User: Fold this.
Amino acid sequence: MTSQRRQMALGAFLYPTGHHAAAWRHPGAQADAGVNFRHYAEIAQAAEAAKFDMLFLADSAGARGEDWGALARFSTHYVAQFEPLTLLSALAAVTERIGLVATASTTYNEPYVLARKFASIDHISGGRAAWNLVTSANEAEAQNFGRDRLLDHDERYRRATEFLAVVQGLWDSWEDDAFIRDKESGVFFDPEKAYRLDHRGEFFGVRGPLNLPRSPQGWPVLVQAGSSDAGKELAAASAEVVFTAQQTLPLAQAFYRDVKARAVAHGRSPDDVKIMPGIFPVVGRTEAEAKAKFDELQNLIHPDVALSILEHRLGIPLRHLPLDGPLPKDIPLTNAAQSRQALLLELAEREGLSILQLGLRVAGARGHWQVVGTPEQIVDVMEERFLNEGADGFNVMPPYLPGGLTDFIELVIPELRRRGLFRTEYEGRTLREHLGLKRPARHHKHHKATEGAAHGDAAPVAA
Assistant:
């Protein structure tokens, strides 16, 4: 294999102590990682030295779950960690090239606020920001924002679609050369190159313009993580990176081909959308070492934690059932993360897992693709998906931090490079350049203010 071949993208997906439910209990983990900036800075710098495309931060605006006895044993369900945009702003100051991806929900935010925050991070970082657009699927979040329950699944996606259109319109408030800042003439910006949005829709009314120049990337990169039908449609229409979870090559290929075909149906190129499934790698120099590392983590899982996670993912209570028996039949469709529920039900049926066995599996990789083995074995399966329409790259989910990421950097990345599958140096400075994504042109055409107000398009700002 030569270095001229297409190379995979890699993201470092950073849960505070790692992705395994018991990561915080590992002897090598930083137990207070969620509120330890030095921990994040060192990991970010290590990932940048290894030439990862991006860092990826998940988020929730509420501690998940009602069982506080289980939550007291579980560090990664958003009970003690930084707000991600604040954290990325700080990480932008201690890194230079790596992309910075933060999760922010369209369900409990306002478009103007998020448009301004992400554009600000793109300016601060010199063009490295990305927004992971999600719809909130946690009942506890709804109760933090004056609601008794979640919005219905389809309504959340309608809101997300309109939310994204408003944000993109606000990011297009100014032409790239609108700000003249000519001290001699006294002209700070050209009013003919500024545009109001004048949006009125089902969920939002936003005048604009955004009080920030167009960002270095035009728009921050758009990431989307939903795998339901509504999620795939939103991703195909607008997303540039799709984070997903499939357990087998056929399932990964079906998802990959479906989203790429939908993107083409929306008038886009298949290359405009990068599919990056999560991978949970446990790496050892030998198979026995890798298995021992995995067993060490699994032995740290408290059963209450495993059940709490599984109940949240499936949307039903399970503790009244025999834990060594199968899942009940005809589990109703959840109003939360429907694609993840479907993935877990398929996994349980395919492998004949009991309730507790499935809970322990979910507590490990949280439903993502779990690979335990040597560097060569892990690269073999990554390469298989990458070369056979299963992935354009991977979001690496270290089992614990910092050691799980260190293992991947020191053992797996050299093997990827030996096969010509991953870069040795950055060639660009922005995240779009790393991923091979084009800089978006302004979407909104020039209209008179009256036309803009009538049609919901951007309108020039009146002098």
